[in-house]
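Lecture 7 notes: from sequence to structure.

We start with a single chain of 283 residues. Read the sequence below before looking at the structure.
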Amino acid sequence: MWGDAIAPHGGSTWLSGLIRLMAPFAVNERLVRTSVYRLASEGWLAARQSGRRSLYRLTAQGARKFEHAHRRIYASPSDRWDGEWELVIALPAELRADQRAALRKELGWEGFGSLTPGMFIRPARGVADATVTEIFASLALTHRMWRLDGARPRAHDDRTAPEMVRACWNLTRVRVEYAAFIRRFAPLVGALDDGTPIPEQAFVVRTLLIHAFRRASLHDPHLPPQLLPRAWPGAEAYALCRELYRRTRLHAEIHLAATLLGARGALPPAAPYFFERFGGLGG
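Now the structure, written as tokens:
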């Protein structure tokens, strides 16, 4: 909800408006307050009091995490890969068990698979990426890690790539999640053909759509096509999500503007990056 709908409109809202926004999802006021309190405790949100009202906004940490997720969820899948790999290496003796677990989790969100307890690997992306460096810094591991870019296996080692993919990533789980997403949301295309949804309906559909799609997409390492199993459903799921998102976007935004207020009154217009989602949403 926050990342998809609120973040593009300034990233802050009054708690009372958020309670109204969550009502169609059968999430009551108590649960909303509890969830917001937890997000604030974990450093995602910060509160500002104005009398008896509370305004919540994204923290710098929260905005950074949403930006990373944004790239994973809304960006078009890339089919370009030059065969090179990126390695992250840590000496096991240098890390505590909790540090290794945190490192594996954070690097996993960025598409790295765990080859050994201290070695992580992903196909090189061919562009500058400061995210890995930020992860090292956030875990206070900057001086304990090695990062190697541009590793390329010898020609006769290409046969081991499928085995390495199976060892590093649980693609079976991701395939099941994508297939479930397609079964659940494909019928909505026909339903939207039969008429225009009212704004609240459009917002509910868009929110549930992204909630379901992100669960699969954020578990997906987004490997290049050469490394994926046959009949991989990722592209089909992305195309379906893009189609439904585009068709509900306008009316969902109408409902959002009618329900929420920002710090200075009316909700600010969506930031330019919002209209770049899924390859472009239109003005």
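The chain has a mean pLDDT of 87. Keep this in mind for problem set 3.
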